[in-house]
């Protein structure tokens, strides 16, 4: 069962590995990223960041879709992590409603991006994809850590449009 899909451009790091895995009580972290599957250094770093008792699975986007769609994983408590909203949309659209919640956080600044909260910036395209996901029935929200304020899509758009 997919507990949450987190969009974080750093993918797996301490905050995700500790705070979010505990909050959602997951036993599997499924990192979905086409670049990661060829980057041995990142793979080593992610293995080191994974808490004991949690299984780390690093797959391409399509590989992650295959894992999510495989009924043998239905009893697992899985957190999926993608690098950006476009990757999240791909995974969501290929997994027939297996994902309900999309948690945005850790989105770095870049060209054309506006600050939404202390650690997250979004572009016009990010807002568009977020809106599409929400219209498709996904619960999309932004939250840095489990104890911080949750921002709804309306609050995100309000901050983006300021």
Task: Briefly characterize the structure.
The protein has helices at 14-24, 40-49, 61-69, 85-93, 124-135, 153-160, and strands at 2-7, 28-32, 55-59, 78-82, 101-104, 114-117, 120-122, 139-142, 151-152. By secondary structure, it is of the alpha/beta class.
Q: Can you tell me the residue ranges where pLDDT is under 50 for at least 5 consecutive residues?
A: none
The sequence of SSEs as H and E is EHEHEHEHEEEHEEH
Oligomeric state, counting identical vs distinct chains:
single chain
| Shape designation | globular
Structural class: alpha/beta
**If strands are numbered along the chain, what order do they take across the biggest sheet?**
3-2-4-1-5-8-9
Topology:
Elements: E1 2-7, H1 14-24, E2 28-32, H2 40-49, E3 55-59, H3 61-69, E4 78-82, H4 85-93, E5 101-104, E6 114-117, E7 120-122, H5 124-135, E8 139-142, E9 151-152, H6 153-160
Helix pairs in contact: 3-4, 4-5, 5-6
Structure write-up:
- By secondary structure, the protein is of the alpha/beta class.
- Strand 6 and strand 7 form a beta hairpin.
- Helix 3 packs parallel to helix 4 and helix 4 packs parallel to helix 5.
- The model has no long low-confidence stretch (mean pLDDT 96).
- Helix content is 36%, strand content 23%.
- It has a seven-stranded mixed sheet with strand order 3-2-4-1-5-8-9, with helices on both faces. A two-stranded antiparallel ribbon has the order 6-7.
Any descriptors?
162 residues, alpha/beta, seven-stranded mixed sheet, two-stranded antiparallel ribbon
């Amino acid at each position: 069962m997919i507990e949450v899909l987190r969009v974080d451009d750093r993918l797996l790091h301490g905050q995700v590995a500790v705070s979010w895995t505990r909050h959602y009580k997951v036993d599997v972290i499924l990192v979905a990223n086409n670049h990661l599957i060829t980057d041995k250094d990142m793979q080593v770093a992610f293995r080191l960041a994974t808490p004991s008792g949690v299984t780390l699975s690093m797959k391409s986007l399509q590989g992650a879709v295959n894992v999510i769609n495989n009924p043998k994983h239905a009893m697992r408590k899985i957190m999926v992590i993608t690098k950006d909203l476009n990757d999240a949309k791909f995974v969501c659209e290929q997994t027939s409603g297996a994902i309900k919640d999309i948690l945005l956080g850790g989105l770095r600044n870049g060209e054309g991006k506006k600050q939404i909260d202390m650690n997250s910036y979004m572009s016009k395209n990010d807002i568009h994809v977020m809106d599409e996901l929400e219209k498709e029935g996904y619960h999309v929200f932004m939250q840095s850590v489990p104890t911080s304020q949750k921002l709804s899509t309306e609050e995100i758009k309000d901050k983006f449009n300021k």
